[in-house]
Amino acid sequence: AASRLTLSQSWPAALEQRYKAAGYWRGETFPAFLRERALCLQHKEAVVAGNTRLSYADLDREASRIGAGLLAMGLTPGDRVVVQFGNVAEFIPVVCGLFYAGLIPVYALPAHRIAEVTHFARKAEASAYIAGRHYGGFDYATLATELCRAVPELQVVMAGEDAGHGFTSLSALQGNPDSLPEQFDPQSVAFLQLSGGSTGLSKLIPRTHDDYIYSFRASNTLCGIDEHSVYMVALPAAHNFPMSSPGWLGALHAGARVVLSDSAEPGTAFALIEQEKVTCVGLVPPLALLWADAASHSRYDLSSLEVMQVGGAKLLPEAARRLQGALPCTLQQVFGMAEGLVNYTRLDDSDELILNTQGRPISPDDEVRIVDDEGRPVADGEVGHLQVQGPYTIRGYHNDEAANARSFTEDGFYCTGDIVRRTPQGYLVVQGRANDHINRAGEKISAEEIEDHLLSHPQVFDAAVVSIPDDYLGERSCAFVIARGEPPRVVALKKWVREQGLAAFKVPDQIVFAEHFDTTAVGKISRRELRAQLRQRYLEQT
Ligand code: J2J
Q: What spacing in Å lies between the alpha carbon of 181 and ligand 1's midpoint?
C-alpha cells in the first residue's frame, strides 16, 4: 500500500461507525470510481472544453499516463502537488492523474498569484506545482519561476504548447502504469481544498475519499444529476462549489457529461448551453443576475437548462424572484463551504422556501447548532452563530493548530463564522458573518490579510479593511487608511497591493484616507470593533 496523508483530527469512532452504518461512507475511493466509470461507459463523453472532447476511456488513459509519469519523476504517493488551472480540458485529467497516483492535489485558483501560491506550497509542504502555461492573459511559467526561488524543492510540470524555462511538459509525462498504487485507504486525505481565509491567509482543508464522495453522491440526488445530465462549470473549476455541489466530480460520478466554460460571461456561456444542451449550472448571485438580464434578449436556446444553482454569497429574495421570472428552469439556492456542510433548497420546494431561504443540509446526520456569543444554543428561530458536525465536515485544518483552536469547538463542531436562523421546517437563512471577511461576489477576502499588505507600504501608518454593501457585487472592499506623512495616491496604493503578488480580486475596491481612527470611548478597541465602527460611519455618511 502507498504511504498516505492521514488526518490529524479525525471523526470520533462512534460517528465513524454511524456514518458507515448509514451508508454514507462506503469505502469508495476516487481512483476506484473513475476506473469503474471508464470500464462501464467507455466512449461516452466525460469532459468537453474548447475543442477537446474526452470520453470516459480517454480520461482514464490520460489520468493513468499523468499519474504514472509523476511517480516516474520521483514523486511518492502521499506527496502534495499544487495545481493551478483555468477551466481548460487538462485540469480534470491532471486531478484524476494525481488521484490515481495517490498524490494529493492542492487546489489553487487561477486568480491566485505568487504570494498565495507560495503560501499554499509551503503550508502543504508540496513537492510539485502543475499549471497550464497561459490563462486569462497570464503566463504561469513566470509565476512558477518565482515560486521555485521561494520553494526550491518544488518540481514543475507545465501544460501548454511550450513548457519553457526547463520545466517538464505535461504532454511528455510517461511512466509505467503498473507503478500506480492499487490500494487506497478511503479514510485518508484525497486532496487539500482552500478555505475562504477569514483571518489572514487561506487555510488548507483536508477532505477524505469517503467524506467527499458522499457529499457529491448525495448532492446528485438533490440536484437531479444522472447519466443524462450535462453539467456546466462556469465558475473556476477548482472552487469547491462547481467541484462538488454536485459539481464536475458529482457529474463524473453519475456518468454525466461535464462542459467547462472558460468564461461565465453570458455570450460565451449561452452559446455553450445551446450547443451542448446543458442541464445544470452553478453560479454566484451577481453572475446569475447578469444571466437573467441577458436571457431576456438572447437569441440562444436555453431550453435544455433544468436547474440553475445560485450560491457562494447571499441571494436576496427580490433577486431570486427576478431569476425565477427570467430563466425557464428551477432555481436552487446553495449555501455551502469548502470545510463541508452544504445546504440546498430542494427542487420541488415551494417558492416560499426557494426564494427566502438558503436551503437545508444534505444529510440527516448533519448536526447543526445555532448559538449565541457565549456558545449557548439560541431559542428556535432566533439568530445566532452556525456550528456544525457531520459526515462530510472536517474536524480540523491541515497543519494549523492556531486556526483549529479558533474554528472548532471542544466537541469538534466547526464554527462556520456564519450568522443564521433556522425556519420551523429546518431551512437556514443566512443573516451575515461573525468575522471580518469580505464576500465579494462569492470570492472571500480576509480583511486582516489585506491590512497586512497595506501596512507594508512606507506611507501607511494604519489600515482597516471592511466590507461595504454593493448593488452588483453584494459586497465590495473598502480600505480606510491613515497615512504616514504625505498620503500616497490611491492608484499607487492599489498597485502596491497588487504587486505584493496577490489575486486581483483582493485589491481594495475603494480607499478612503482618514486623519485618525476614533478609539477614544473604549480606549483600546479590537480590530473588529474598529472595522465595524468605520463601516457604520461610512454608511451613515453616504
Ligand atoms: C450566503 N453566504 C454563502 C449563500 C456560501 C457550495 C456553495 C458555496 C460554497 C462556498 C461551497 C452562501 N448565502 N448561499 O463550498 O460547496 C458563504 C458563507 C460560507 C462561505 C464559504 C459549496 N454560500 N456562502 O462559497 O468555502 O459565508 O464555499 O461560510 O468559498 O461562503 O465559502 P467557500
A: 34
For 124-160, how does the pLDDT look when each residue is reduced to its tens digit (9 = 90+)? 999 999 999 999 999 999 999 999 999 999 999 999 8
Q: Indicate if ipTM > 0.90.
A: yes
- Mean per-residue pLDDT for 305-318? 97
Task: Give the sheet arrangement for strand 257-260, strand by strand.
Answer: 52-55, 45-49, 257-260, 230-233, 280-283, 307-311, 330-337, 340-344, 360-361
Is 337 within a domain? no
Handedness of CA 385, 210, 255, 264 (dihedral sign): positive
**Does some domain include residue 356?**
no
- 512: cell is 478612503
Give how many domains the chain has, as a whole number. Answer: 2
Give the angle 98-101-102 at the CA atoms, nearest 5°. 85
Q: Is 340 in the pocket of ligand 1 (CB under 6 A)?
A: no
Query: Residue 498 sits in a domain of what CATH number?
Result: 3.30.300.30
Which of residues 151, 183, 215 is at a domain's end?
A: 183
Sequence-distant (≥ 6) Cβ neighbours of residue 255 within 8 angstroms: 37, 40, 41, 44, 56, 226, 227
Give domain status of residue 478, yes or no: yes
Where residue 1 falls among pLDDT bands split at 50, 70, 90? Answer: very low
Q: What is the pLDDT, as a whole number, of residue 200?
A: 75
Among 148, 183, 218, where does a domain finish? 183
Ligand 1 and 120: CB distance under 6 A:
no
pLDDT at 370: 98
Question: What CATH number corresponds to the domain at position 63?
Answer: 3.40.50.980
Q: What is residue 528's predicted lDDT score, i.e. its pLDDT?
A: 85
- Give 418 Cα–ligand 1 centroid separation in angstroms: 10
Domain assignment of residue 10, yes or no: no
Per the structure, the complete domain to which residue 130 belongs is given by 30-42+52-183
Nearest to 255 by CA among 18, 33, 439, 405: 33
Question: Phi and psi of 484, rounded to 5°?
Answer: -100, 105
- The finding on whether 359 has its CB within 6 A of some atom of ligand 1 is no
pLDDT at 524 over 80: no
Residue 94 has pLDDT above 60, yes or no: yes
Q: What spacing in Å lies between the alpha carbon of 311 and ligand 1's midpoint?
A: 6
